[in-house]
Structures are given as C-alpha cells and as structure tokens.
Specification:
It is built from five helices and no strands. By secondary structure, the protein is an all-alpha fold. The chain has one domain. The two termini are 33 Å apart.
Length: 117
C-alpha cells in the first residue's frame, strides 16, 4: 500500500466517524493534497540520496575495490549491471536498496573509507 493509499484510508476512517459522508470536505482535500506533495518530495529525496551514495562509492573505490566491497557483502559482482565503474556503483546501491541492505552498505563504506562522508 502506498503512502497516498494510507492517507485515503485514514480520511475514510475520519469520514466514517463523522457519519459516513462520502464527500471530501475542502479541509480534508487540502490536507490530502499537502501530504501528497510531501510524499512526492520524499520520493525525490530518496532518489537523490541513492544517487549521492553511488557517487561517493564511485569517487572512493576503483573497479577492483568495488568488487571487493561487493564480495565482503556476499554479493556476487556478476549481479552488478553496467560496464563503467559508475554504472556498477549505481547497480550495487540499487541491489542493496531492493534487499533492505543500504544501512549495511553505508556502514561498510564508512568503515573502509571514513573520510568519504
């Protein structure tokens, strides 16, 4: 369920408590629109943070070191798409993001390259 779906469900619960009216009062519509914009901004920020992490890794690791980083995380570097170092860095970040391992990646990079952050 997306953040917007959660918001709509919460507003439905509020409406139910108010007697089941289906119309969306102007205040509720304004709140929903405001929160929708916050969610969009958060998604943009997340994309920015992931891109920034890939750039940090690319700046502080060469290709052999990147393969070693992936190895230390038990990630087969064959799973990293791309031909250039930057493409492989982006692939590693995306791989870790999809598997909920970003914190582990950041911790390892901080441990190995404390000056990178």
């Amino acid at each position: 369920m997306s953040g917007e779906d959660d918001l709509r469900a919460a507003l439905r619960r509020v409406r139910t408590r108010r007697g089941g009216r289906d119309e969306e009062p102007p205040f509720e519509a304004a709140v929903l629109e405001y929160l929708r914009r916050i969610l969009q901004a958060a998604e943009g920020l997340e994309t920015f943070v992931l891109a920034r992490l890939a750039m940090v890794i690319e700046r502080h690791y060469d290709l052999a070191e990147l393969r070693g980083l992936a190895f230390r995380m038990n990630i087969d570097d064959e799973n990293l798409a791309g031909e250039t170092l930057m493409e492989k860095c982006v692939s590693l970040v995306q791989f870790c993001d999809r598997r909920g391992r970003l914190a582990e990646l950041v911790a390892l990079v901080r441990e190995e390259r404390p000056h990178a952050f």
